Every structure is written in C-alpha cells, then in structure tokens.
Amino acid sequence: MGKVAVAQIKSSTVKKENLDAALGLINEAKIKGAGLIAFPEFLMAYSPANQSAEELSDLAESVDGPFITSLREAAKAAGVGVVATIYENCPVPNRVYDSAVWINGAGDLASVYRKLHLYDAFGFRESDKFHPGDDIAPLVHSDESHFGMMICYDLRFPELARLLTLRGANVIVAPSGWVQGDLKVEHWQTMIKARALENGCYLVAPAQVGNIYIGHSMVVDPLGRTLMDLDEKEGLAIVDLDLNLVQETREKLPLLKNRRIDVYARHAQNAKLP
C-alpha cells in the first residue's frame, strides 16, 4: 500500500459541511501521493447529547446513499482508497448502525463494517441511539496489504483485533471518536500500541478532535512504535507503511505461533464473568 493519509477532523452537526471537507481532503491525499485516506468515526456528523435517537435516525443513510456515493465518485476520480464512516440505516426503529465503509481506488465498495461494541461505559450509552453489528467485515486486500476494520471502543476488546489478524490482516484501521475524560488519552495510546504489538501489525487510528473528543490520531508499527500522533490539531498526516516489517516482527516475536489455543479453548468453555 505504501503511503496512507490519516485525517483528523472536527465534524460539525451539518452533514454537507463534513462531506465537503472530506472531498477536499481526498484531493489533498492524492496530491501528497497517498494510496489510501482514513477518516475518523462520525465523519458524517457530530451527534450532540441533546440530539434524539429519532433525529439521528433521520440523518442516517444507506451505504448506497448520497453521502457514500459522493465519496465513491471522489475516490475514483483521485484513484485513492477511502475509509469513511456513516450513520447507516438500521431496521430497528430509532437506531442506526455506526458503520465504516471501505471504498477502493476504483470507487467500488470493498467492505462494510458495523461497530460490534457499543460504548456503554463511563456514563455513556451509545445503545440509546445505535444498534450493534453482528459480524466482522471482510478484509480488504491491496498488493501485500491486508486490511481489517474496527471502530473506536472495539479497541478495548483484544479478541476482535486478534480475529482480524488470524484472518490475515497485517494492517488494522480503527476510525475513532475517543471521548475526553480522566486518563482517556493514556487509555487510547495504550490500547493502540497493545493491539499493534500483540498482533505484530500496523494500527492506523484516525480520530475526531474538538467537541467532546481527544484527537491524537495515531499510527503505530508492529513493534509498538508511534509513527504519528496528531495531538489536538486538525489536519492530514502521511505515513509510509513498510509491510516487510510485519513479517520481520512476526518472525522475531512469534506471538501468533506461540499461542496455546489448546489451553485457551478448554477454559473458554467454562468461562464466567467476574
């Protein structure tokens, strides 16, 4: 894949404003030679606390709606892959899916992921507005790059990153809107590094900034080194991914081969919540 562009933005509540900003950043990514641009969670719009579930449902679209269609056209024109997020229509009344959509450089839909783990923690209840997905998404393949997708709170669940890795992922993209709070920057940085290190993969995490979010979009390599941290500023950063490093790391630190799945499986059958 080579160069990946990571966008850190502050989404407004106005869908068109965010779409226009995204279209401009896709063009900037092309100019800077990136083959992929990854946007954060809630690209479509910021949903304030006082927005009702019904109002958010009215904002939602399907993956073939005008928001994604415009991004597909821009991706094709630029020849740049796009990872974008939308509020996707859901069959459950007054609920939406929090979805990440992968558009390839030809403008085709390559994969759609609906967030599995809803952020019902630290006083938040995403389940009041969202409905969870029910499966991981197909990997997206580009030359030697094999991409998996997860979203924000999913980072706190190592099982998902491991499943994507076992499916063949060597890069995981995690669009996020990490909410501010005590130790939340430390949690964010730790989770990203841990998921990359324990799976010997790249972790690309574009994030929202402003409103209630911490920013700090990051890219971490398979050895847990931070290649990029955008701190609290809006903008676009370019990172070059060296896929040879994934193979080298997994050979030197064979965590995937050293797993004891025979023991894990035996105990998982009788596992109980603490």
The level of helicity is 25-40%
Uncertain parts? none
Structural class: alpha/beta
Task: Give the biggest sheet.
Answer: 6 strands, mixed
Write down how many β-strands occur, each being a DSSP E stretch of 2 or more residues.
Answer: 14
SSE ordering = EHEHHEEEEEHEHEEEEEEHH
* Strand arrangement in the largest pleated sheet: 5-4-3-2-1-14
Outline of the structure:
With 274 residues, the chain is α/β, with parallel strands linked by helices. It has seven helices and 14 strands. The N and C termini lie far apart (42 Å).
Q: Secondary-structure map with pairings?
A:
Blueprint: E1 3-8, H1 15-31, E2 36-38, H2 53-59, H3 66-78, E3 81-89, E4 96-103, E5 109-114, E6 140-142, E7 145-149, H4 158-166, E8 171-173, H5 184-199, E9 202-205, E10 209-210, E11 213-214, E12 218-220, E13 226-229, E14 235-240, H6 243-252, H7 261-268
Parallel strand pairs: 1-2, 2-3, 7-8, 8-9
Antiparallel strand pairs: 1-14, 3-4, 4-5, 6-7, 9-12, 10-11, 12-13
Helix pairs in contact: 1-3
What features would you describe in this structure?
- This protein has 7 helices and 14 strands.
- It is an alpha/beta fold.
- It has a 6-stranded mixed beta sheet with strand order 5-4-3-2-1-14. It has a 6-stranded mixed beta sheet with strand order 6-7-8-9-12-13, covered by helices on one side.
- A hairpin with a 5-residue loop joins strand 12 and strand 13 (226-229).
- Helix 1 runs parallel beside helix 3 (66-78).
- The longest helix has 17 residues, at 15-31.
- The N and C termini lie far apart (42 Å).
- The relative contact order is 0.15.
- The model has no long low-confidence stretch (mean pLDDT 97).
